[in-house]
Amino acid sequence: xxxxxxxxxxxxxxxxxxxxxxxxxxxxxxxxxxxxxxxxxxxxxxxxxxxxxxxxxxxxxxxxxxxxxxxxxxxxxxxxxxxxxxxxxxxxxxxxxxxxxxxxxxxxxxxxxxxxxxxxxxxxxxxxxxxxxxxxxxxxxxxx
Length: 144
Fold this sequence. Notes:
This protein is α/β, with parallel strands linked by helices and 144 residues long. It has five helices and four strands. The protein has a single domain, classed as 3-Layer(aba) Sandwich (Collagenase (Catalytic Domain)), CATH 3.40.390.30. 47% of the residues lie in helices and 18% in strands. The longest helix is centred in the last third of the chain and has 17 residues, at 119-135.
């Protein structure tokens, strides 16, 4: 089971009943590794994520979730942007909680070396995301 540290940089995430326990539960459920690991989750605003995305990925805009994989016991960091998350959830007719859960599952899988650069990788990752989300009681995040 990973040790999950939650940092709330955007107070709007407190609209969840308890964002720390919510995020910890989702990340722990998505973590498949048997080894000990430390994962940091940062619930941030779009400006913070925009700066990270620009600096580390060369993309001058915010994105919904960023994952930064580390080596050793510190598996990495997952950073979620509140504004992007909210806009996407509304546009996709999903609840805030379901979309946040999906982004956390997606980010946690990236920390476990899953990716979606090829169609084959994307299919494998999406199937696993769907399985985890359904186990958590959420619908298939890729279902229209």
